[in-house]
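Lay summary. Proteins are chains of building blocks that fold into shapes, and those shapes determine what they do. In this project we predict the shape from the chain. Here is one chain we studied, written as its sequence of building blocks.
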Amino acid sequence: MKVPLLEKCIDRFLSAQLINDPVEWHYPHSMVHQFHEHWSPPQLLGLKDMYDQCLWSEYSQRWWKRNHYRPKEIMMALIDADPELAAIAWKDLSNDAASLDGRLSRFDYYCNELLQIHRHKPPGSLESYHYQDAPVMSLYLAGLFPDKFALYPGLEIFKNFCKAIGSPEIPVIDDLVRYMKVAAIVFTYLQRNPAFEKLKQLRASQFHKVSLVPFLLSYEVIHFEGSTDKTAAYGF
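And here is the predicted shape, written in a compact code that computers can read:
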């Protein structure tokens, strides 16, 4: 990436936020905060209820429930299929000492195993996919480690952002490992911008109850620059 282009993207984002003071940011920040506040090391009993509480929002359910897209519903069925294996899957994903690539790969493996168990339990199921894709996995990661991981806005927005910052390699598939590295770089330069603290102060308002998740501003920068509609709401 080209640093001057990245800095211009950050300038555009911060200027727009400071001038307009939009409220769209409430949704992603409240969603990640909700997950982080309700998550604890998974146990054999109570994992399903805890997961249900983690994926809850008073603003919208669209991150995990849309037409023909229901990762929350499927995950709860997978937990029911084998609570012990599901707890292992979540403990593995929560192990920040392991590589992100390895954790994602193993979680996908566990989900496929759980799906097969679910399919073979009476009365049987025709589900062929577990729906734990890049966007919902990014919510899990951001909820587990909000100071290190950010929400993923989808491939098209990420591609557009990479083009905007002069990246020599434009992604062609969802790649959370690369995305999280980019998000970390964005946050580093975001913190260096004098307007960053102004935005944090602006959002620390007494007129709302949303907790700002600072690292998640990197997601906002990427979404803002990669979106063709700069007024589009966050999410899907």
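What the prediction tells us: The chain has eleven helices and no strands.
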